[in-house]
């Protein structure tokens, strides 16, 4: 995941800090990318976790209250637990009513999750300190802080920042209320907890980034024609229709391209050579369009180009470049020249009636038919 190389002789304080900063920044960017690309699922998962932890926390606090009244009555902390239960009797229904069914905004859920985490960790900190006369080091505080790194999905800096805040507050409280020996144990535990939380967050976000990359790759594979690395027919239709729907007043140019005499290529040189020809033709098409334009394969030797927000002059320059590069292709024996036929249809923003995708496609197909009927190796614009 990380292309950072370390040589044994290079390790010193400065280089180690530089390495840690690089890893930190990389993980932060991965966490941002993951949240941006999966914002909806992140909100839903955080909301579900918030709902579940809200109930779990209530059960735990009530359990501690009952235990303090019976098994651990000598601790004299029943009042503290009773106050915690009373406070959560207010918080519990608010979260249940607000987040049980309807998915809220990312910003709202993120803020509420952070506040809830600090709220729970405040209770954990109090329980790690009282009764003060026991003067015992914290047992559950550090594991809970690390567990929250896994429970909610934040950016790396946000997750680590919350842990640092929690640990800093607890260290201060421990310093003010416990003996120096116990404080030293708590301080060590907090430092170890911060390191562990950072490591867990790094592993978690790296895993999420890898998982997200794999999902994106699978999604792209479902949209792409594997032989030519252009969009498949279904993806082409969807992307074009979506653009035409969302940009009804934009110019666009649609092209249908047919690789001339492709059957003869297969019959003469074999299907493997035919696949290589299609692969090369697909590469020509991909390199002929802008980053926002669309290149697709409809099937067999029929391809498709869609230029967004371009006039016919720019589109024809691309067509002529495609045809020129196609003619420069050669068969395995170096003798057979290749060519393609192109049908073109234009939708202008000045037209009174905005054509649909199917109407534009029918015109481009008609223009292609006319080219093939008149001898191929040419293009025609359907006006």
Please describe what this structure looks like.
This protein is 66% helix and 10% strand. The protein is elongated and about 100 Å long. The two termini are 53 Å apart. The protein has 383 residues and is an alpha+beta fold.
Name the average pLDDT: 87
Number of domains: 2
Helical residues, percent: 55-70%
Low-confidence stretches: 1-11
Q: Write down how many β-strands occur, each being a DSSP E stretch of 2 or more residues.
A: 7
**What is the SS-derived class?**
alpha+beta
Sheet having the most strands:
5 strands, mixed
Report, as a whole number of angstroms, the end-to-end distance: 53 Å
Order of helices and strands: HHHHHHHEEHEHHEEHEHE
Q: Over all CA atoms, what is the radius of gyration? A: 32 Å
Give the helix tally: 12
Query: Order of strands across the biggest sheet?
Result: 4-5-3-6-7
Global morphology: elongated
- Strand-residue fraction? 5-15%
What labels would you give this structure?
Alpha-Beta Plaits; 2 domains; alpha+beta; two-stranded antiparallel ribbon; disordered N terminus; elongated; 383 residues; five-stranded mixed β-sheet; 12 helices
Layout of strands and helices, then pairs:
Layout: H1 13-37, H2 39-69, H3 78-99, H4 106-129, H5 141-151, H6 156-177, H7 180-223, E1 224-225, E2 230-231, H8 233-246, E3 252-259, H9 262-269, H10 271-286, E4 294-299, E5 302-308, H11 312-328, E6 340-347, H12 357-373, E7 379-382
Parallel strand pairs: 6-7
Antiparallel strand pairs: 1-2, 3-5, 3-6, 4-5
Short description:
The protein is an alpha+beta fold and 383 residues long.
